[in-house]
Amino acid sequence: MRRSATGPRAAAALVVALLLAGLWFLSGQGSDWFAEGQDAGASSSASTDPDSGLPQIDEDDLPEEARETLELIDDGGPYPYERDGIVFGNREGILPDRPRGTYHEYTVETPGVEHRGARRIVTGRAGEFFWTENHYESFESIQR
């Protein structure tokens, strides 16, 4: 006698499939897929810079060392590191695509680190300021 496909095995398989789909969605992968189908006219998050498309961070929310670096930039120096002010090439392509020479980088000191560390502020020719705490892996647009 043959068993029906609607027995306990099929029910268990369905439960496992639903659980896996739920975990996938909750991990963020599913929500990204769902968001792609939303209307292009839907409003975007207020925490995204409309010019760069990057997340925003308020200057007051930066670490103290980053705020000190911003003051040095505003004052035109002097800078503590020889390489401060050099051209940032944007090889990662995370910042908006601009001609070479548009961006310049400045070191943000990291407590307990004896070298330049990973934290930087990158400035743009049009007065933009960007913050990275992971050596250019990601950026936030600084709101001043």
From TrEMBL:
Its EC number is 3.1.27.3. Keywords: Hydrolase, Nuclease. Residues 41-50 have a biased composition (Polar residues). Residues 36-78 are annotated as: Disordered. Pfam families: Ribonuclease. The keyword 4Fe-4S does not apply. It comes from the Bacteria. GO terms for molecular function: hydrolase activity; RNA binding; RNA endonuclease activity. InterPro entries: N1-like (IPR000026), Ribonuclease/ribotoxin (IPR016191). This is Ribonuclease T1. It comes from Nocardioides daedukensis.
